[in-house]
Amino acid sequence: MLSKRVIPCLDVRNGILTKGVRFEGNKDIGDPVDAAKRYYEEGADEIVFYDITASHEARGIFLNVVEEVASKICIPFSVGGGIASVEDMRAVLLAGAEKISINSSAVTHPELIQDGSEAFGSQAIVVGMDVRKTLVSDAIPSGYEIVIHGGRKPMGLDALQWAKRCEQLGAGEICLNSIDADGTKDGYELQLTRLISEAVRIPVIASGGAGKPEHLADAVTAGKASAALVASIVHFGEYSIPELKAYMASQGIPVRMR
Known about the structure:
Blueprint: E1 5-13, E2 16-21, E3 24-30, H1 32-42, E4 47-51, H2 63-72, E5 77-80, H3 86-94, E6 99-102, H4 104-108, H5 111-120, E7 125-133, E8 144-148, E9 153-158, H6 159-169, E10 173-178, H7 190-199, E11 204-207, H8 213-220, E12 227-230, H9 232-235, H10 241-250
Parallel strand pairs: 1-4, 1-12, 4-5, 5-6, 6-7, 7-10, 10-11, 11-12
Antiparallel strand pairs: 1-2, 2-3, 7-8, 8-9
Helix pairs in contact: 1-2, 8-10
């Protein structure tokens, strides 16, 4: 079995590390560069960086912050926010990222997934999916809807159908975030995570809701995710990366230990 990854997520607003609950009430935490360096030194498998207001504000990502983070770490680094073209992708990669995460722009311009995959390889293209539970309907048979622009705009698009299409278009990975669970620390949305993980052949990162080590173990076992994204529990010092991995290892889950 492949090792399961633990991936800290840096939500960045105006160059500052921030965190909210269900995409609201964000509190500024500190310097994302310092945080990335600390998590790298603790043994994080990857770092995810999101410029969380870039798409809503219709602007490009803060490349100077990306460059600073990339200079401090030697692990895979995924960057998203406001990436709307192959040229944007190239700029992010040249700034030091290994992966490009596209979310809102992928929904509004699905051809961007294929264009990016053809230009840089599918391994470099991560599709972020922000998902909210809703009523089952003909348009949304899974009961899970895609929402874009930082949780502001529901799209009437079924999450399961969208995940399958992303894979077909050339995405190499899906980062699956439950808006309902985001920041609550009540655990990942396991039904959603398992639904998507079982429907595609590419890796799925579970995101939204981590509050204790057991939640990460649940995400990669019951949820069948390839990795677990963490934010609040490490940003606020409740658990360290080694503590999370040690618990997962104690449950027989393969993880990379330093």
